[in-house]
Amino acid sequence: MSLPRKVSVETLDHLNEKDPRAMHSRRDLQRVHRVMGTRSIVCNALNQLVPHLSPSRLRVLELGAGDGTLMLSVARALEPAWPAIDLTLLDRQTLVEPKTVEAYEKENWKVDIAVADVTDWIRNSVRAQHEQEPERWDLIVVNLFLHHFEGVMLANLLNAIAGSSNRFFACEPRRSYFALMGSHLIGALGANAVTREDAVLSVHAGFRNSEITKLWQQTGQPWKVSEYSAGLFSHCFSAHRL
């Protein structure tokens, strides 16, 4: 019997960025990523996409980037194999610290911080596509982001991504009873109440099998896609434009 998908509001998404609980939870997420092996999962996926890209400077967008530290760890792991990167970190809160930006620059990644709600980004992307002047990214990346959405909103988000990028990669929670059991044990990592509660909700809102692929196919554009489980708790989707 499969675990039905259920999207619920997560506490961290609605806390002020300076709230001590939010600051603690973001530190928790860094530890969670290390335990889940997220950096390796993302690096392996991006290395599969890079051969299809130009060796010149790449334009990369991360939606829901948070404090930017996960992608920084990816940048460090990919260097020096990757070409120079123009990276835009988009989030609705200002979370990226100056020291993080400086660390990116040492890896030859030029960083732009964009503070905006994803609904505004979708609206602007769709408008640009209708005006036949879409802002095209070489690669769009999301991590623990798609699972916050469902229904029309999720469909609109994927449509906007498909219309604005040549490559796309998503690393999301895997929706399974094993992952759910793991989410209930996250307190062993020293996670606070916010992280413990949100971890369980994230698994319930996660993905399995080919759920993202079925939604992506509705964009009506020619893509080569791959959807798969990674590690113990992650579910991934990768696509590149044909």
What would your notes on this structure say?
This protein has 242 residues and is α/β, with parallel strands linked by helices. The chain has a single domain (11-241), classed as Rossmann fold. Helix content is 42%, strand content 20%. The chain contains 9 helices and 7 strands. The protein has helices at 20-36, 38-49, 69-78, 98-106, 118-130, 151-164, 177-183, 193-204, 211-217, and strands spanning 58-63, 85-91, 109-115, 139-143, 167-173, 223-230, 234-241. Strands 3-2-1-4-5-7-6 form a 7-stranded mixed beta sheet, with helices on both faces. A hairpin with a 3-residue loop joins β6 (223-230) and β7 (234-241). α2 (38-49) crosses α3. The longest helix is centred in the first third of the chain and has 17 residues, at 20-36. The chain is globular and about 45 Å long.
Describe, in short, the structure shown.
It is built from 9 helices and 7 strands; from the N terminus they run ααβαβαβαβαβαααββ.
How are the elements arranged and paired?
Layout: H1 20-36, H2 38-49, E1 58-63, H3 69-78, E2 85-91, H4 98-106, E3 109-115, H5 118-130, E4 139-143, H6 151-164, E5 167-173, H7 177-183, H8 193-204, H9 211-217, E6 223-230, E7 234-241
Parallel strand pairs: 1-2, 1-4, 2-3, 4-5
Antiparallel strand pairs: 5-7, 6-7
